[in-house]
Amino acid sequence: MSFMRIKKDLNNSDSLIQTCKKELKSVLVSPEFLYNGTYNKTKKGKQPVSQYLLAQRLSYFLWGTLPDNELLDLAQKKQLFNKKTFLAQVDRLLDDPRSKTFTELFAREWLALDEIKKSSSKWPLVHARFYQPIHFVDYLIRDNRPLMELIDSNVTYANPFLKAYYDKKDGAQIKNTSKSRGVEVIVQEHSRITLDNTLNRGGILTMPSILSMYSGKRRTSPILRGVWVLERILGDHLGEAPMDVPPIPKAKPGQKLTFRQIFELHQSSDSCAICHQKIDPIGFGLENYDYDGKFRPSGPEVDSSGMTPDGREFKDFAELKKLLVKRYDEDIIHNISKKMYTYALARGMEAPDRPIVDAISNKMIETDGTYRDLIREVVTSAAFTSMIVE
Fold first, then answer.
1. Which of 197, 213, 229 is the last residue of a domain?
2. 62: in domain
3. pTM score, two decimals?
4. Which of 50, 182, 251, 270 could covalently link to 257 via disulfide, CB atoms 3.0 to 4.6 Å apart?
5. d(CA 45, CA 382)
6. Is residue 366 in some structural domain?
7. Which domain holds residue 100?
8. pLDDT tens digits along 29-58
């Protein structure tokens, strides 16, 4: 807005307001405001981002807010293109408490954790369940753990509301952080515990919070659980079910069928088998855990055996977990790499991104990479440090 135009409208407050509205609207819908960063409009094709934009991208990725003075000073001195200096800043931002914003939002988006809020009407229990996987993902990143520790770990987080799910010896590590306030139930902080005695826990898949997320009233939902593992952990997107999929059949009068046998009838349909051959083995493999996430051993009422689509058999979830760690590790690592990459860039995957993500995930597989290794590869990738102007 020009100075003379503002001066002219000062004597007319209504006119000044209308003028400001028009000018602000122009600013708010301009590409310079809507799109992150500045670039050389006269130069077409691929070009490196500016020092200030690189500082901005890094800060919004790992802190979810504006860069601080240290980052801006380095940008002003044109030192962020120095890889050693840049990676030192990556570690500084991750070590700062402000990075908890990143770990929480990344975990929520990647693992669809907001669904946990529907698992109970008791807020303290919902809080306990909701923050358990968030603290775990924060631990994996902050302590620089290997990527596959997502599936198999002897560390977890719990508060007194989750104490019953763990062995008494392990539960003794959980601290009661609340003070008595009459009949009120107080939300309590989580404790980091080591699973030395709870053999049926460990990793994201065995957390009560995750297991209760996709369960019905007093019964498990193997299909929803299987879809969640396929899409969120293995990165296998199934898409929407076809419109002509028949309903799940009901047992005929006098026919005694188990819950699993009913679904096997549903899978026998050709239109259903394509997806259910992937979903059912994993979903029913989690049947060792009830609708509330409590462990129950295999037996006549609990059949968690199965066969993966490539012909590998397992008798219970413990064996399925071993298969995920040893046989499906590359799929899991590729998915984690893709999720971190798209979160860092704040956009979906495009065709030019695929070879970049493949190269990053292959390096993580070959080197048994950690979460910080992955973040370093993402922020030094061409997609993060440059842009294409058309």
1. 213
2. no
3. 0.86
4. 251
5. 13
6. yes
7. 96-213
8. 887 676 665 555 556 677 889 999 999 999
